[in-house]
Write a structure and sequence with these properties.
The chain is an alpha/beta fold. The chain is built from 17 helices and five strands.
Length: 376
Amino acid sequence: MSQSRTGSEDDRALKSRTMRYLWTLGYYVRKNVPLTETWDRSEHTDIDVLGVKVDEEFDSAFVVCDCKSGASNSTKTRLFWLSGVMKYFGAPRGIFVRSQVLGTKYIELANSLGISPLSEGQLIELEKAYGVDPNNLVGPFNKEQAKGETVLMELKEHNKPLYDYLRVKYWEDPPHQQILSLFSKAKKLNEASEDGRDSSNFHLAYILSLLSLSVLRLSRGILTVNPPQREEVASLSLLGGRIGYLERTELLEGFYDFMTQELQTRYRAKYPVSKKEFVENVVPTFSKYLADLMVRLCQNPRVAKALPRAMEHLAYDVILSGQSSGLKVIQTEYPGTSKEQIVNTVKDYWAFVERSGLANPYIAHAMDKAIAELDS
């Protein structure tokens, strides 16, 4: 006699199916995304499934999903909560997934809030309509997803600030701030992880996957810029645009003048670097490599939009699960692109990672091997 699954197991299965469905539609997906306490003080603290799709114009659209298997008396409350989370993320769409069909009054309420109510049976029909392969278990919903969650929880024990940023605060920041924060945190992670443990490699691969999504979204700002000006605009976009750059420069110049006067007055000494050298530090050293990558992505945006999900494949299926790399599951979801084009985009991104000093020897070996397998 088979043992029945618990409600939590059914919830996990429903979340995985929702992730797979959204993945088939081109979304980059995450499960159980916590919300900060300052935003929401109710009992509902996690987004069951969060998806973001970047189109060929590098515009991004979020979708927020609430997935529960059992019956609940709080359907109305959950719908309003989901509507609030959608507004917070600027998500034009929410999905409310339940095992059974909702009553008419709840369906009408959901539709008025921009939420699509789906029963498990309706989800099955959508899977058939979109040709969702039930065996296509890749990236964050692959067979080793529980292992991935365990490895991330290890990070919470050893480096809670990094864990909190990756799981929570990352989604609250604009793309340029995401990039600056991820760079800083990846550097510190590399300094603290010198033993080449598999968990450390996955932590870094997880960061690099998120970073690729941020870079793609930031590239939206230069896609329509004249090619000769793209590199300059890309560098400035990392600082929030030209206005942000000027504000930071003015702040540094003021600080430099203050310190110079203090040193002269108190110690009759000169500041050890010139104002020009001091102010140049407002632009991160990796910005020139980032600008070069963004320009390359803009040369073929239809292919470039596959990058974040290709990095998810490498992070979860190769680094975490130890599978052989292959982009067939990615390529088939981007008609009109070739495997070679997607591989070249991954190579461009990895070259940027290495030139920027984000790759430690251990993950570099694993990624070089995986990318070589992509070519075969």
